[in-house]
Amino acid sequence: MLNTLALLLLYQLGGELVARFFGLPIPGPVIGMTLLLLTLLARGQVSHDTRTNVGAFLQHMSLFFVPAGVGVMVHLHRVANEWLPIVISLVVSTFAGMAVTAWVIRALSPTKHTPSKEEARR
């Protein structure tokens, strides 16, 4: 369990270093998880210990939302002052996400041939 946690934290640290060194507007943990994904894809497999321990982390995933909730509560006055842009961005991003998801599903699903009227008469 400790090795898996150390691995995740090292990739997060690597992502933070890349983000700060290059001045990227992408959060370090996102870059770190992308680097981890690329590493796992290059290796072609996930070790048994890592797979087992990550499953244990996922069982307690709700604990990872506590800091975000605390952050919202600390800045509640700001949320109250800027509620309109927040609501607009949430609505627009939700519909944009749904549209992109629908487009990807449609692009990746096998096409079915629908017969034309002429073909249907035969």
Task: List strands and helices in order, with pairings.
Blueprint: H1 2-22, H2 28-43, H3 48-59, H4 66-74, H5 76-81, H6 83-108, H7 117-121
Helix pairs in contact: 1-2
Describe this structure in words.
Helix 1 (about 1-20) packs across helix 2. With about 120 residues, the protein is mostly helical. Helix content is about 80%, strand content about 0%. The radius of gyration is 22 Å and the shape is extended. It has two domains: about 1-60; about 60-110.
The 3D shape can be described as extended
Number of strands: 0
Strand count, sense and barrel status of the largest sheet are: none
C-alpha Rg (nearest Å): 22 Å
Beta-strand level of the residues, as a percent range? Answer: under 5%
Task: Determine the N-to-C terminus distance.
Answer: 65 Å
- Uncertain residue segments: none
Task: Please sum up the structure shown.
With 122 residues, the chain is mainly α. Helix content is 78%, strand content 0%. The chain has 2 domains: 1-59; 62-110.
Task: Describe the structure using short key phrases.
7 helices, 2 domains, extended, mainly alpha, 122 residues, single chain
